[in-house]
Design brief:
Blueprint (H helix, E strand, L loop, with lengths): L3 E9 L2 H20 L7 E6 L3 E4 L21 E4 L6 E4 L3 E7 L9 H17 L5 E4 L2 E6 L6 E11 L2 E9 L21 E2 L2 H5 L5 H15 L3 E7 L3
Parallel strand pairs: 1-2, 1-12, 3-4, 9-11
Antiparallel strand pairs: 2-6, 3-5, 6-10, 7-8, 8-9, 9-10
Helix pairs in contact: 2-4
Length: about 230
């Protein structure tokens, strides 16, 4: 099993560009598997310009604006091949795409999702934000007992135990953009979306968040960080 992982910070990158890049890595790993070679693992970290993405099982009606009006709010839209419903990505949000061969770690999607959630929960603890899970709902939430607010969304794709897509943690995110969607298809008015900035009452150091979150993932998955590359601006 190869538990080495290459970590790359792509900076602020167009969604389609990042999607194409991770797809290339995903296909590369699948090819390595088909040739019975040692497979590689990657963690991509980035932010995106304003974009809405709809999972393959999602409902397009959960986008509450006509597509032609997205240019008015400087946003784009992509139906994509991950699980889950509609979500928003934008500046101030840390997105992590693990492109892993789970044969190198464990072949258990439930465990995979729970460890990703745990990495976020532990990261938020470092900033004195108490967070957890709601049974039956993927994601990480705060103030679960009183006024549940989602702070991190997840959506993944797997094939032959190779993963792509991942998680989006709201750090200093403009939450107004969530007003144009039924986020993750959850219409329950008792649940809302939040960010670290909103919970802290101040902006968080996004580079510090990236580093801590990356370290938590590496630790929980018992990875060996091969190298860290920062290609962002």
């Amino acid at each position: 099993m190869n538990r080495n992982v290459t970590v790359t910070d792509l900076g602020l990158v167009d969604y389609k560009e990042a999607w194409d890049y991770q797809t290339g890595l995903f296909n590369e790993i699948l090819k390595e598997k088909s040739e019975q070679k040692v497979t590689k693992n990657y963690l991509l970290i980035c932010e995106h310009p304003n974009v809405y993405t709809l999972g393959k099982s999602g409902n397009k009606d959960n986008l509450l604006l006509p597509l032609e009006q997205l240019t008015d709010i400087n946003a784009t839209y992509y139906p994509i091949n991950r699980g889950g419903d509609i979500t928003y990505h934008g500046p101030g949000q840390v997105v992590v795409y693990p492109i892993l061969d789970l044969d190198n770690f464990f072949t258990d999607i439930h465990k995979y999702m729970r460890l990703l959630e745990e990495s976020v929960i532990q990261t938020l603890t470092e900033f004195n934000i108490e967070a957890g899970r709601i049974q039956g709902l993927t994601g990480v939430w705060v103030d679960i007992s009183n006024s549940p607010r989602k702070i991190c969304a997840f959506g993944v794709k797997t094939s032959r135990w190779v993963t792509m897509h991942g998680l989006a943690l709201n750090v200093n995110t403009d939450l107004n953009y969530f007003g144009h969607i039924i986020a993750c298809g959850i219409a329950d008015k008792d649940k809302s979306v939040t960010s670290m900035e909103k919970e802290l009452g101040r902006a968080a150091d996004i580079e510090k968040v990236k580093t801590i979150l990356k370290d938590k993932i590496v630790s929980l998955f018992e990875m060996h960080e091969e190298r860290y590359r920062d290609t962002g601006s």
